[in-house]
Fold each of these.
Amino acid sequence: MNLQREVLLVLDEVLSLGGRGLEFRRETCLLGSIPELDSMAVVTLITTLEERMGITVSDDEIDGSAFATVGSLVDFVSHRANG
Amino acid sequence: MAETGLPRREVFFADSPTFERGQRLCVWTAPANEPARNLILHVHAFGDEMNKSRRMTALQAIDAARVGCAVLQVDLHGCGDSSGEFEEATWDTWLADVRSAARLAVARHAQRWPTAAPPTCWMWGHRVGALLAAQSIKALDPDWRLLLWHPVAQGKSFLQQLLRVRSAAEKMRNASGATVAQLRARLHDGEALDLAGYRVTAAMADALEAASLPPTLGLRQVCWLEVSAGTEPSLLPASSAIADRWRQAGAHVMTRVVPGPAFWQTTEIEDAPALISATREVVTGS
């Protein structure tokens, strides 16, 4: 399965979007557009992505900037998956 | 399997001499008209994970009681409706609470059903509660079994998550928010911090950081259940490693992953029915 779909599955699950998340595209805005995406959800998402995709995110990288859009989040994961 | 009909659910407070430093809220869910074949003590999760899990825990207790289990739930010191503020709680008090609750559960059942065969006893720990359960079960006789729901294996990682939430919140508000390292240093210096809605003292942070699942459980029976919403659910690699270590030291460890949401951390309260039926199966053996 492709990376974007995997990321959307995690988004949908953690934010309890009930399937809506699976319809997001790269341009879809996340932070600021989805009220459920608070600091708790940001960290839960990062942890779940770390566990499911075997990536490691350092503490200093968690500031929400990766969550601007679906595209920025997928790129964030992709860079760490290949490193 | 035969159901025993509507369970009885009783809520009561217990205090000294069973528990120190005030009272604990207890909920007892058991078959209404017959002795239990299994006795289960629930050890709840930490902070907001406990709140988000209330529904699933209640559903499980009621389901278990329908198939011959007596379940005791206790709000630990400083948690839920028990005495004390959260910042007054200590890890050692929690361990003592768990041991006391285990004895209370056994005594309560025996008092109700003095001529019944003693039930099989289980300590059912969820997330950080699994850490507490695994650490306190050493004080109980070897027949006590361990039932773990998605255990936190290292308190240090759990503390890191709490610090990450605080750091992320600060940095999302303004770029000069505290880093995780800075927050940890403040805890080291003795400052209590509000983390994910709960006031965590330096002592509690130290205790969490030092807590991990014990390297061995002796010859104990363990059921390790995890929940995954992933497309190919599998046990976390770290969990498999611990389970294997326990097996090498003589424990009988059964692991299982069921599909479902991580209900202790999802934004909305969600159910994981597959976890309820899996728990029913492993406890009743059918």
Note: The first helix of chain B runs from residue 48 to 66.
Amino acid sequence: MIDLRLPSFGADMDDAEFIRWNVQPGQPVNKGDIACVVETQKGAIDVEVWQAGTVARLLAEPGQRLPVGHLLAVLAGEGEDWHAVAATATAAAPAPKAEAEKAATADARPPIEERPPAPDAAPAADAGAPAARVSPAARKRAAELGVDLQALAAAAGGKPVSIGDVERAAAATAPSTAAQNMRAAIAAAMARSKREIPHYYLGCEIEVEAALRWLEGFNAGRPVAERVLWAALALRAIGLALRASPQLNGRFVDGRFEPAPAVHLGVVTSLREGGLVVPTVHDADRQALPALMHELAEALSRARKGQLRSSDLADSTVTVTNLGDLGTDTVYGVIYPPQVALVGLGRVAPRPVARDGQVVVARTVQVTLAADHRVSDGLLGARFLADLQQQLARPEGLA
Amino acid sequence: MMDAQSIRRTVIDSVMEIAPEADFAKVDPGRSLREQLDLDSFDFLNLLIALQGRLGVDVPEADYRLVDSLDGLVDYLVRHQVRG
């Protein structure tokens, strides 16, 4: 029997609204097939099947608000009879301990259905917040309309919140709820980061003329659809450099650093209509350059079309923000908790450099590292940047 | 063989798929298309891939400086289009 559970799309995610099923009982599915669609603050996400099997029983219903780890469906594995699996599946199967720990926050929370659908999910922020004075009727209406009661109560300044207030708020915010939710999610993550993580910052200017000339040679023989961009080359170099700096690659949870076994890079992506999504590029230290470029291009395309999949948002281990295209020279980033590092890439541009006692012009990039001082010190961060410089000085090693 | 007008139309349609909010009435065809429409390197690459699919013309990186503006891009595509 194979469990299909609601995956986590980030440390700041507690739950999601179930939208619809794309499969039905008796249907054979392969790894990567889209099983269902859920709605989160990051928008509608397609949830993929992780293991091939046959759908046996669907346990989630449209409209339900479900916690991370909740059992959505059971599938029959190879050799199993799906009818038998469906008969034995129970709807009340508890989430396994690992999922429950990931989903649980610092304070024990009441079941999802009883809480108002507030966008802010950062645990530290809620720990001391006073309860909003809202009547049960107004609370119910707020749940129906998707109104943020905490924001409303804060705006009301201690006065009770009425049904009228809720309905007026809903009318005022209806058209942009998705954008506001995303903004709220970003705000919660960034506020938590600055509250909890003692950041230190290191930067260096890396000469990339050799790397870019090598890339131009690499692309010259390839059709346009197989062209590799600087962003992919940079991610590859970052992936390899991180392999040698394990204290930058992992999570800080419950007062301890857990190094990650793989290097998955979250790539900060701006959406044309405003807001950010951070799709993941997996195994940046292991994938060959063309495969990495392909995964990056596909993930960015899905992100910009609002068609993200669960594997796009699977927990990354380090985040990279590349603002070079927008003309920024240097990025001073904010670490995305529970990660412990963020790499910032500025604009690649021709700049004066010293070479053999002369000033010449070569393309360079400002790279910054923001890191968690609870886990690493400046010396380690400096080594990472030196390693990155080495990787880019030997671009053949990045293919 | 497509004429310049049809090619221009194809380019505009392809750009609209990437940047649906683009207002071509405000675009100066002689200035950088990427800058005016806020297209990043991935957007531009996707545009070239779409144009290669529709018109059979592959723009190598060495020729990027020739296709920076809308006029430049259309001229280049007219000159290089594959005879059908």
Note: The CA atoms of residues 145 and 275 of chain A lie 23 Å apart.
